[in-house]
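Weekly structure sync, notes
Attendees: PL (lead), two postdocs, one rotation student
Agenda item 3: pending single-chain targets
PL asked that the sequence for the first pending target be pasted directly into the notes so everyone works from the same version. It is reproduced below exactly as submitted, 148 residues in total.
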Amino acid sequence: MWQTVLRGYVPDLWTGNYFTRLLPLRRYFQPRDNFNSGYVGDHETLSYGTTTVIDCCHNIRAPAYADAVIEGLRESGIRHVFTYSFMSELPDAFDSEVARFADAQRVFERFDDARSRTTVNFGIESVGTVNVGGQLALARWAQRAAFT
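Predicted structure, written out during the meeting:
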């Protein structure tokens, strides 16, 4: 959903421009932009009759980014699975991978609620990433926590 406000900005997106022209635009986003993108994208989705979305958010450059997009999702009223992705434009505002993992855990503990419209999952950066094992361990922890 974070890409909603960029629709139409990069022509011929699927001819290789996604990674070279669209994803680099993340560095200009502020948390409020993530909120606006989620909010607008979800209202558009609802207008077409879709009532549940998976937001694979790979634009979490600092702690406030995930919170902002989840608030936009919540305010839209759509049921959503927010996927906290570890793929981010670097450099980001996290001091270390440990700080990013702590933020991901905080987001899960704060927002994941089976009784609400919000579910939180995690997305690994990429197979072959230096610490994909740590990312998978966090995802497994969240899965166990959700069912206890």
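Discussion points:
- Helices lie at 17-22, 31-47, 63-76, 97-111, 132-146.
- DSSP finds five helices and three strands in the chain.
Action: rotation student to compare against the earlier draft before next sync.
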